[in-house]
Specification:
single chain; 186 residues; alpha+beta; Transferase(Phosphotransferase), domain 1; 2 domains; two-stranded antiparallel ribbon; two-stranded antiparallel sheet; 38% helix
Amino acid sequence: MAEASSIGRTHQINLIKLYGFCFDPTTMALVYEYMENGSLDGFLFEDKSAINWCKMNEIAVGAAKGIAYLHAECKKRIVHYDIKPGNILLDRNLTSKALVYLEVTMNFGMPHRILLTGFRGTPRQWLPWWTWDMLHNGELLVMVSLCGVPEGALEKALRMLKVALLCIQYKPEERPAMSIVVKMLD
């Protein structure tokens, strides 16, 4: 209940608002803000409809701002261990909002810097080490252009890809802070 209360008091434009919850023994429920366009994974993997690359960049920046707020700006620091397209939801204007739910780890009275060691997340979602070699050899630009990215958006798409690769470094100290991610995407 304490975690639900903390999440309910956490407000930022790129976070989904938790309106209420019920922990009755017969009914357990969380009531979140309604997001008309569902999750980002529907647009990326199920091809709900096409999103232009300019809008995709806005979605990435919005998600990064929501996560940056959780990590560094809100009173109760929240580390979200499950950032993925299914947890980035889109409102009617395709504004991205990160879903924060009760499986997150709250930082109650702990040091402000939480060092994550080792591997987190689903292993099959991590890109192999050779992706960096492809980046340095210019092969990723070719891959991005083959994915249907219009020529005018190639630079923006490649920047988004580079930032994403920086964020999934195996060693935590090699990953940029989310505030830096926001600046790189902006």
